[in-house]
Protein: Large-conductance mechanosensitive channel
Organism: Endozoicomonas elysicola
Amino acid sequence: MKRIISEYKKFALKGNVLDMAIGIVVGGAFATITSSLVSNIIAPVFGLLTSGVDLADLFLVLKEGSEGSPYVTLQDANQDGAVTLSYGLLLNSIISFLIVSWFAFLMVKGINHLRQDEEKAEDVKEGKQTKQCDHCFSQVHKDATRCAFCTSTLTKDNV
């Protein structure tokens, strides 16, 4: 039993698991913000552009309820027991997904840019910004096409 608990501790306390847990919590909070953005800002603007149509109230009645149609809102249809195809809610979800995925893309892109900057700084620190000339064995910049010391032409194969 102690062995299983020990293995579990090793698993749960690994950096990747903790990073994932933090990501899930932040992602859930971000999804709440995005949902609010869609329902409280984007949907009303869309409603103004479409003469007051609320995305959440776009639906098709597949089977009428006890009192019958017309139903002004999705809530009215649901209260009457109508079977509906609520494509407006799907549109809200698609918009939310697009917003979340766009911001996730921007965040990953920004993080990758920061990592590249850190890698470049490490390369400079470790001397990986240079390569050796095959002719005079001097250290030249890794992107150089000609050796500054012996003026030999350098190829991409020089390391």
The chain is about 60% helix and 10% strand. The chain has three domains: 1-53+89-126, 57-85, 129-159.
